[in-house]
Amino acid sequence: MLLIHCPYCDEDLPELEFTYAGEAHIDRPADPASLDDEAWRNYLFIRSNVKGPHYERWRHNHGCARFFNAVRDTVSDRFLTTYRVGEPRPDLESLIGKEGRE
Amino acid sequence: MTRFSALSLLKNAMTGHKDWEPQWPDSEPKQEYDVVIVGAGGHGLGAAYYLAKEHGITNVAVIDKGWLGGGNTGRNTTIIRSNYLYDESARMYDHALDLWEGLSQELNYNVMFSQRGVMMLAHNVHDVQSFHRHLHSNRLNGVDNQWLTPEEAKAYCPPLNISKSARYPVMGAALQRRAGTARHDAVAWGYARAAAARGVDIVQNCPVTAIRRDSNGAVEGVETARGFIRAKKVAVSAAGHTSVLMDTAGVRLPLESYPLQALVSEPVKPIFPCVVMSNTVHAYVSQSDKGELVVGAGTDQYTSYSQRGGLPHIQHTVAAVCEVFPIFTRMRMLRKWGGIVDVTPDRSPILNKTPVQGLYVNCGWGTGGFKATPGAANVLAWTVARDEPHPINAPFHLDRFRTGRLIDEAAAAAVAH
Ligand SMILES: Cc1cc2nc3c(=O)[nH]c(=O)nc-3n(C[C@H](O)[C@H](O)[C@H](O)COP(=O)(O)OP(=O)(O)OC[C@H]3O[C@@H](n4cnc5c(N)ncnc54)[C@H](O)[C@@H]3O)c2cc1C
Ligand SMILES: [Zn+2]
Hints:
The structure holds two protein chains of two kinds. Chain A is an alpha+beta fold. Chain A has two helices and six strands; from the N terminus they run E-E-E-H-E-E-E-H. Chain A has a domain at 18-26 and 43-102: Folate-binding superfamily (Folate-binding fold). Helices cover 18% and strands 32% of the residues of chain A. A four-stranded antiparallel β-sheet of chain A has the order 3-4-5-6, with helices on one face. A two-stranded antiparallel sheet of chain A has the order 1-2. In chain A, a hairpin with a 7-residue loop joins strand 4 (53-59) and strand 5 (67-73). By secondary structure, chain B is an alpha/beta fold. Chain B folds into two domains: 6-77 and 185-254 and 345-412, FAD/NAD(P)-binding domain (3-Layer(bba) Sandwich), CATH 3.50.50; 118-177 and 257-343, D-Amino Acid Oxidase, subunit A, domain 2 (D-Amino Acid Oxidase, Chain A, domain 2, 2-Layer Sandwich). Chain B is built from eleven helices and 18 strands. In chain B, strand 10 (219-224) and strand 11 (227-236) form a beta hairpin. Chain B is globular and about 65 Å long. The interface between A and B is medium-sized, with 24 and 24 residues. The structure holds flavin-adenine dinucleotide and zinc ion.
């Protein structure tokens, strides 16, 4: 079972307290009415499905119930970091570099 | 290649079975092929076989990063059925079922196809209604599926607990008698052997790292760990890894890859005569011919390529099995494993041409593509050979995610296969 760090509760907690909520940093279209079918497809259905560090959303629904973001390596399932909603997408280079030094 | 027959078995028995020749050669890749198929699972190997047999295209390589059949083909719980809701799916899976029925003869290889029936349990009013909807739709499509009362279900599968005091009482079941199981490895081996006998090269332990396109955008070949292999037609049938590879050709797919797990028990005497699936408590069980209970678990909630899967799913599944079959509470489980399944938003596959000339894709089979193996392989071969889809796979195109014409088995079933 994964141990996940909730950036709001500031604790490492078991995966069962959390719900996965898909790829992160996918913006809702600002002007939905102007989108053509292709843009809708990309927004609704196309995902990067990365093999490696993946930006994703989680929700601590059996705890503080808040959404947050994470970077997890989908090959090892290891979390590189978790961060609050609204914070900028962390830079991968620095994350992986930090991992390497540990 | 020696044909298997009573005579050849007898002859080899005389020499202690030491003189069997290899079933297929482990080929080194040539520099160029007419068709390269990426992924030596049942689907890829089967497509190579049908390309050679039905379309006369034998200059074909099937390339795998590992051993043939080492992906989901060798990791699944082997449930075969065709009672899907939508017309498109019914045609696709029933085509596969038709081919399953003759497959051992066709390949001269015993794939141990066993039509022991697949029974799906209804535990609440919603299940009862949705199963009836399936039954009616199946009947209109000529697909067999039958409603059983709890007592009839128990008569068909005696270990079943139909007590009214169960936490999720059995309110009835839908039974497809034509459905069943097959030996998964044998399917890969049988297709590999039959394809190799017709001249197909099977290249193992050779990861394909990229798909190369020429200046007009058409497919030129594949980059591999053993160098560039030229081919004007490339078919990608790489299950959980399909999107990674298709990205290299600039084709983005509506796929997400999740771990799906299964487990087996210690072998016991025959006790379980059919396949039982319970979507509500999420347990599905059958007994292999070796005697092990084969149990399917769920997918993890997060995407992953780790090929392991989390323990909570195993615990959940085992609890569900004990609930539905109290007789198994003291059974010991031997092994568990995971495979990476490629899931589409509507839980239906993508099997068609792509926007790139010469590039074909067969993916998105997710948690339920073993049953489709012969059918998918058969129409994939057609699509590659003629550069146009067979009527059966025509609706399974990539463009449905743009037009909105989905084949929404997700809404119809919402569970693993
Ligand atoms: C635990 C589990 C239980 C399941 N239960 C059932 C079931 O009961 N019934 C059912 O119908 N379906 C079931 N499925 C789904 C089923 O196994 C798959 O849909 C089906 O086997 C897919 O076959 P395939 O030939 O497309 O893929 P695979 O057998 O996975 O073949 C794909 C191949 O591509 C290779 N590959 C990937 N990337 C590359 C690359 N870059 N270069 C070269 N080779 C590459 C892989 O090594 C692999 O061998 C289950 C799956 C799992 C994991
Ligand atoms: Zn929290």
